[in-house]
Specification:
This protein is mostly helical and 704 residues long. The chain has helices at residues 3-36, 41-62, 68-73, 80-91, 94-107, 112-136, 141-149, 152-185, 189-204, 208-239, 244-264, 269-298, 300-319, 324-335, 341-359, 376-401, 405-408, 417-435, 438-453, 463-471, 499-506, 511-549, 555-578, 584-598, 600-608, 614-635, 655-671, 678-688, 696-702; strands at 476-478, 492-494. It starts with a helix and ends with a helix.
Amino acid sequence: MAGPIQAQFATSLKKYYSFYTGGFIAFVVVAGVLEQLGVSNKALGYLFFFATILLYAGIGFMSKTADVAEYYVAGRRVPALFNGMAAGADWMSAASFIGLAGTLYLSGYDGLAFVMGWTGGYCLVALFLAPYLRKFGQFTIPDFLGARYGGNIPRTIGVFAAVLCSFTYVIAQIYGVGIITARFTGLEFGVGVFVGLAGILVCSFLGGMKAVTWTQVAQYIILIFAYMIPVVWLSVKHTGNPVPQISAYTTALPKVSALEKEFNDKTTPKGAAEESVRAIFHERATAAEDRLKGLDAGGAAYLVDEKKKLQARVSELKVASADVRAIDAAERAVRHFPIDPAVARAAWINDREAATARAGPVKAHAEPFPVSGNTPEEVDKARGIAKKNFLALILCLMVGTAALPHILMRYYTTPSVKEARTSVTWSLFFIFLLYFTAPALAILVKFEVYSHLVGSSFTDLPAWVSNWAAVDKTLMNIADINKDGIVQLAEIVIGGDLIVLATPEIAGLPYVISGLVAAGGLAAALSTADGLLLTIANALSHDVYYKMIDPAAPTTRRLVVSKALLLVVALLAAYVTSLKPGDILALVGAAFSLAASAFFPALVLGIFWKRANQLGAILGMAAGLLVCIYYMVVTYPLFGINAPKWWDINPISAGIFGIPVGFIGVIIGSLLSPAPGREVEELVDHVRYPNQAGGARAMGASGT
């Protein structure tokens, strides 16, 4: 697009989104007035949910297109500022908006690996990939692999890897949509997943990347307002300072550290109460360990004997006319008792680990790598493992960021290579706004819980506790373990995915702020889900159907195929999500390791090493991806194999093994086979160097 026309287009966009921002602020104010007039919380929840969905649907409808370039890459005319905002929304997934602060709340210092890895990854995007892929100028990442390495095999592996990591990632987003929908509309989680799916599809079905781009800009505005307002309010409430990034560390964190020491000091009233609860969990951990030993010794016969004991206990309670709740608990234990040794082992291992975690002292939020052990040697060993996993996770997240197809596709949409570079800078800025705030939010919420919820009476629990417990017991559960009627920290179970969404309720803010945060979380999940589903559908329709099956397919048919695949993949993802395969951050972390192992070596060496060839790409991508998948499957608890970890690396960082294998595979495969032809060298020169005319034939072969 010509310079003056592009400048006029950018000016118009600024005007439109300024009006949009003002309108959204007015909508929140009106919702606040309605709350003061007595409109129910449930009605406000529906208002925020459906109003934002209708807004995104409207943008999607206005952006409908039958043009291939508009559908796949938004016509390559998205200004750097707005592409950076769209990339920020694409990036601010449910993991960032919902899960990041929750992980920092639960893990403290260790959670900073996510902040460092994700922000550092964008530096790799800017340095090694985004400008070069934009100059290549096609539609998808498998497009580049097919043109650079030749043949359909590298393209096919690229399609498989793109679908796999994007599908894993999108499950986490739909999971976030399900949580929000269930909490703020009252629907069951499984139903909420499919209701939220409609919101995802309306943004991308009609207009592809064009609709997704302009929707994501709108979604970023909503999500950043939603994230910042509660944390600023909470900061003012506790410290009087409206800058949470300062107040959290100078005022709230020292108070949190002091309370943690008090909880761990058995000579204080709070410490003694906590110790009484921890002792009970220690007994439970020991009991679970004894059951595992009995299972090892007796097998199925041991299970039969243990179930008979539970049944006898029920009979004793009934004869003694015991409390109804005690009888119900005993009967529930009989009903849920495992009858299969494998199921029993998995359940009892989980019981042992959960009880052991709650039997230990409170981990210091600000302490790097807090670990425990019976001897100094055990402590040193555990700290070494924690440091190793911290660094491994940072590396996998950085490299994975630079290899995620839905992120790299965003930089195909800018008007020029220069705009692509500028766009990455804007992306970093918009991401920084949230990531710089998330650690402060975690500290402020932790101080609120420590100082107000802990020590309160079970008869006076705040409403948000029961509200969130009704959504999912793994997100919120408080039980009076030591029967003293007072809430101890060890009696509280808070899921990380709850922290951000519940912050307004925890802080006692008006419900309209809860609706705003829900709208922000929904925007974050929807924006990323749109990009991911579009990546999957485009890879299948463009790279498989059009490039391999029917190169003569007309535009209309190509877009129909893409939309049909989009619908099928979305429904399949929603079904898998309804089964609750894992928490948001674990699923997202797996996607990063998969992308890093499959794509990064082949993409980087394809751009910077002319000698890299087809055999090298095939070996590198396949070997890296397979090693990563294998390690995840055998070590991730979901699959029940529980094989020993390699060098004690957690499965979320499986990419630490897949990445080097990928590089080695590309290098060895390339050196063992003939060098690429001149056309490939011209393509590399074209994408590497400015004003380079070479590569036209190679690019033409890949299609436009």
